[in-house]
Amino acid sequence: SNYNSQTKKAKNNKNKNKSGTKRHGQDGDVTITNDGATILKQMQVLHPAAKMLVELSKAQDIEAGDGTTSVVVIAGALLDACSKLLQKGIHPTIISESFQKAVDKGVEVLTAMSRPVQLSDRETLLNSATTSLCSKVVSQYSSLLAPMSVDAVMRVIEPATATSVDLQDIKIIKKLGGTIDDCELVDGLVLTQRVANTGVTRVEKAKIGLIQFCLSPPKTDMDNQIVVSDYAQMDRVLREERAYILNLVKQIKKAGCNVLLIQKSILRDALSDLALHFLNKMKIMVVKEIEREDIEFICKTIGTKPIAHIDHFTPEMLGTAELAEEVNLDGSGKLIKITGCSSPGKTVSIVVRGSNKLVIEEAERSIHDALCVIRCLVKKRALIAGGGAPEIELAVRLAEYSRTLGGMEAYCVRAYGDALEVIPSTLAENAGLNPISTVTELRNRHAQGDKMAGINVRKGGISNILEELVVQPLLVSISALTLATETVRSILKIDDVVNTR
């Protein structure tokens, strides 16, 4: 176990002072991020116990979506505490059971210091999203991104009844060019594809069809060659093709469709030039190369149904929208926006803009984190202070609790509580404060019953953190605590690591 703890410490220190790490991948691409889960995912980890920490960070990412760094830092500190307890000769089982008691008590303490929140309270939701964005590279844009995340989540759920948010309903579209200020929330559908026929770029009162078959001459299944010997035969082949395609296009027009989305096809051209020519004449806007995985989202958004054969192309399969148009983004490409959908299937699109790929990707990760924070509040409608306040509160309350226990247990619970101080002390260090004096002062204030005292990074000192509006969802803290403890307990139970080929 000591061997395990050593690795963990090294890893933990690596992750503690991250606030933006550049990394060169195997293929030489660079990732700039300060999202703990992303860093750990990209790291080359060989040690089995270290792999467990990467999994831990992933689990936190899935469960809460935020707090991915904290959870690894807490686990590291707890492992550190374990190795000290083991050196004193305390049996792993006792440590493990005491830790379980401590975490149960910890969840109680956290729940007690949280305060309920209503989803109608937009102000509070904004504060939570802003707090999440504060630590990100794009923090200066939080006044734009936070309201955007809140609105996006609010549009896709029924606030009264929702118990979770399906983030699949919020589509993030990345488009190079512009700056982060140009990000926008679109109530409807945004496609990055270009309009295939330049003649029609704007359609009002759109009737939208989504086809999964090809508008091109059919191919036979067998490889065959046709030898055309004279001009008349050649003419017949071409005429046949023309008639076939014209027939398809006429059926599409007859159903009243004026915007046609065509799924990508691997086998042959999804859209022949001839078909495009006919569609253009009939004033039908065509968008091809629709990805297979986007189809579900498109159908949900505009209420269309995918059509797999021309015979099914009937008016009731079409979706409707007020407007479908190709929008010019000042000099940096075009987007297709379909807005005013009559059947709002409760979906929204967020268009993320940025001057280069790295910025866009980081912005996307940050928006994802902010969305997750609001999702946490939908799942568990309670908020808790940030800024290291909950961890110090836990340390103080667990020390009190340990006095009610006897023997070794008391000692282990106490050690568990002390280990949690790593979060405020790291936070103090990253804010440029003296970690030791800061943590001591925090402990004193919490011992005197000031539950909301935390580190205010912006002002560089200790203050009542709720008044400063530094808040995070209760779910993030609880999930971080329980997941970290579970991982530590499972590492504790490892006797030996046997390398197998």
From TrEMBL:
- Compositional bias, Basic residues, is annotated for 8-23
Reactions the enzyme catalyzes? ATP + H2O = ADP + phosphate + H(+)
Give a yes or no for keyword Chaperone in this entry.
yes
Q: Which UniProt keywords apply?
A: ATP-binding, Chaperone, Cytoplasm, Nucleotide-binding
Classify the main location.
cytoplasm
- SUPFAM superfamilies named in the record: GroEL apical domain-like, GroEL equatorial domain-like, GroEL-intermediate domain like
Presence of keyword Nucleotide-binding: yes
UniProt-annotated location(s): Cytoplasm
| GO molecular function terms attached to this record | ATP binding; ATP hydrolysis activity; ATP-dependent protein folding chaperone; unfolded protein binding
Region of interest called Disordered, as start-end residue ranges on this chain: 1-30
For this record, the Gene Ontology CC terms, alphabetical, are: chaperonin-containing T-complex
Q: Which InterPro entries match?
A: Chap_CCT_delta, Chaperone_TCP-1, Chaperonin_TCP-1_CS, Cpn60/GroEL/TCP-1, GroEL-like_apical_dom_sf, GROEL-like_equatorial_sf, TCP-1-like_intermed_sf, TCP-1_chaperonin
Q: Which domain of life is it from?
A: Eukaryota
Task: State the family it belongs to.
Answer: Belongs to the TCP-1 chaperonin family.
Protein name, entry field: T-complex protein 1 subunit delta
To which species is this protein native?
Amphiprion ocellaris
